[in-house]
């Protein structure tokens, strides 16, 4: 089991609020870790620190053995750091396929002069992106709705498009922020299968989710966060059976 993402001694505070307090966390290839904890625990902030939305005050983050904590967001993405967002951030009027094809991170270093003078290269890369998008849509069970406007999908399908977009880079590590929030019905099985398939392909996955059954069914291991700290790590069933943790989860 090889470590893909290693977080060591990560600290972050906003004024008086401690969102990360000496966090150590390792995500390994092929494994799905469930990150649980009450609202405000710092789960989304941890994803923001890892993906580079804001810098940490202290600590290191390595991806496949290389420091990424000083890199810009798009550089981390280019190295295979993928994430979804709690609020979806799709383009509602674009087709599912186009939602996967747009986005600056898919064209790292694209320069204006290239667009003007290297039409062949731009076309080739666009064809590559399109092939990749169709492949990702196949993997996420969305091929049949490739031409559908994102706005016309069910909410569950929209959540899957969020995951599909995250897979457009060569993912090494996938961070999913509440993929099941607001989702009902058979999307449950589809999301489980998609995330398992991604992990099985060697990606290190971390899922934040309040749907405890979803986390228990999906994850190899759970991590419990509270007030910016990792308080416990172990089988999800053990964490949710721990009275001390359930009190923290529901008591505030
Ligand atoms: N950019 C920010 N500026 C100030 N406070 C923030 C910022 N981002 C998050 N916080 C605060 O950090 C705490 C943890 O929030 P968050 O990471 O969203 O928790 P969770 O995802 O576990 O519900 C909250 O108190 C939140 O208000
Ligand atoms: Mg959150």
Automatic annotation (TrEMBL):
InterPro entries: AAA+_ATPase (IPR003593), ABC_AA/LPS_Transport (IPR051120), ABC_transporter-like_ATP-bd (IPR003439), P-loop_NTPase (IPR027417). The keyword Iron does not apply. Residues 5-252 form the ABC transporter domain. It holds the Pfam family ABC_tran. One of its GO terms (cellular component) is plasma membrane. GO terms for molecular function: ATP binding; ATP hydrolysis activity. PROSITE patterns: ABC_TRANSPORTER_2 (PS50893). Keywords: ATP-binding, Nucleotide-binding, Transport. This is ATP-binding cassette domain-containing protein. It comes from Enterovirga aerilata.
């Amino acid at each position: 089991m090889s470590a893909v993402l290693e977080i060591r001694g990560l600290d972050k505070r906003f004024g008086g609020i401690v969102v990360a307090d000496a966090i150590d966390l390792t995500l390994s290839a092929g494994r799905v870790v469930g990150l649980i904890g009450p609202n405000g625990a710092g789960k989304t902030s941890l994803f923001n620190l890892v993906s580079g939305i804001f810098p940490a005050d202290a600590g290191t983050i390595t991806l496949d053995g290389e420091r990424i904590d000083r890199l810009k967001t798009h550089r981390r993405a280019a190295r295979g750091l993928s994430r979804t967002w709690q609020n979806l951030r799709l383009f509602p009027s674009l087709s599912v396929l186009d939602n996967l094809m747009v986005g600056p991170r898919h064209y790292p270093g694209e320069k204006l002069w290239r667009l003007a003078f290297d039409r062949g290269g731009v076309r080739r890369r666009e064809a590559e992106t399109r092939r990749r998008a169709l492949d990702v849509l196949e993997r996420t069970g969305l091929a049949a709705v490739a031409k559908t406007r994102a706005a016309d999908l069910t909410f569950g399908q929209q959540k899957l498009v969020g995951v599909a977009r995250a897979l457009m880079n060569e993912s090494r590590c996938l961070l999913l922020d509440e993929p099941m929030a607001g989702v009902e019905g058979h999307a449950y099985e589809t999301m489980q299968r998609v995330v398992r398939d991604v992990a099985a392909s060697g990606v290190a996955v971390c899922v934040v989710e309040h749907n405890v059954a979803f986390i228990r069914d999906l994850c190899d291991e759970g991590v419990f966060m509270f007030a910016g700290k990792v308080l416990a790590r172990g089988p999800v069933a053990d964490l949710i059976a721990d009275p001390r943790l359930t009190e923290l989860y529901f008591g505030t």
